[in-house]
Inverse folding.
């Protein structure tokens, strides 16, 4: 079955690029039968997202399921992605270590995914507060120098 040939392979030769001592106490050769491969692919393609719309920072579509399932998406998992199912906020899961997944109940569903940069709102708040502080400092500094110039002009007038 090694290399998906019809006949079983009874031995394997392994060559290493450098000399050394190697141990293969727990080495096994396993075969994954490919007999039902076409049927498995056909079953996996039954429940897919349809009417997909892809935007700059959004993905939407619809799906119909005959039983509860998890929709695995080929979008990399990131904390900035949010999801809603039928207009209600939903929890995105991490699937296959790197992609997103969305648990769904049986029935017809409208899926909406959208991306918001994490901490973007907080960043705007900090930036606005920083500009406000700079403005206050500038106003205070201008008043101080304005008062100082008034006093200096009074002294010149007195001379």
């Amino acid at each position: 079955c090694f290399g998906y040939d019809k006949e079983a392979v009874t031995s394997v030769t392994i060559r290493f690029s450098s000399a050394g001592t190697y141990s293969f106490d727990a080495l096994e050769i396993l075969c994954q039968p490919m007999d039902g491969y076409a049927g498995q692919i056909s079953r996996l393609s039954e429940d897919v997202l349809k009417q997909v719309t892809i935007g700059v920072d959004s993905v939407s579509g619809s799906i119909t399921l005959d039983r509860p399932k998890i929709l695995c998406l080929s979008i990399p998992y990131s904390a900035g992605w949010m999801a809603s199912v039928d207009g209600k906020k939903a929890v995105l899961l991490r699937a296959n270590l790197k992609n997103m997944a969305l648990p769904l109940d049986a029935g017809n569903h409208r899926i909406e995914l959208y991306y918001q940069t994490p901490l973007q709102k907080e960043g705007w708040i900090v930036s606005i507060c920083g500009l406000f502080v700079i403005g206050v400092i500038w106003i205070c500094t201008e008043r101080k120098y304005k008062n100082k110039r008034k006093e200096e002009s009074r002294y010149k007038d007195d001379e």
About this structure: The chain has a mean pLDDT of 84.
